[in-house]
Amino acid sequence: MSDLKLCQGTKCHTYHTKDRLKGIKGSKTNQTRRRSSFYYGKGNFCSLNCQNDWFNDFGDRAINHFGRLEQAKHLTEDNAWVKDYDYDWRAKDNQHSNWRSVNKVTQEQRPMTEEQYNNDEYTLNTTE
Ligand SMILES: [Zn+2]
After folding, report:
1. How many whole angstroms from 25 Cα to the centroid of ligand 1?
2. 51 and which of 6, 41, 83, 95 could share a cystine (Cβ 3.0–4.6 Å)?
3. pTM of the prediction?
4. C-alpha distances in Å from residue 4, one per residue of 32, 37, 44, 75
5. Distance (Å) from CA 12 to ligand 1 centroid
6. CA 15 – ligand 1 centroid, Å
């Protein structure tokens, strides 16, 4: 059993690289890349090229499926909260500190815990 996953790029197998050439000697084929992790597209693509190929083939359908933006969004006090922290490159262990919410409209800052920082659900925003 392996935990390897396949690149989701629609044309990944069409790019000629040594590492894509797999199989028994004499009958090797260019194959979709398989790795334990990928850097692109939240771990779904082996390269920016493959991510772009996927978007060119499916991007419009994906946007329509999840809802195409029809009106401009506005940045207001209610949706301007972003997360921030201080980074100390001199410290050995605790390089991050002073986790906080910062309102990009009012510049108000409110402290938060590291757990809240890492929690994707946690936000002070009341509208999108
Ligand atoms: Zn790929």
Report:
1. 23
2. 41
3. 0.71
4. 12, 7, 11, 41
5. 4
6. 8
What confidence tens digit (pLDDT) does each residue in 78-128 have? 999 999 998 877 777 667 888 999 999 999 999 999 999 999 999 999 988
Nearest one of 49, 61, 39, 60 to 10, comparing CA atoms: 49
pLDDT given for residue 79 in this prediction: 96
Mean pLDDT of 68-87: 95
Neighbours of 58 (CB within 10 A): 13
Distance (Å) from CA 28 to ligand 1 centroid: 18
What residue has token string 């910062």?
102
Give residue 45 CA to ligand 1 midpoint distance, Å.
5
Query: What is the pLDDT, as a whole number, of residue 2?
Result: 64
Output the CA 22–ligand 1 centroid distance in Å: 14
One-letter amino acid at 9 equals: G
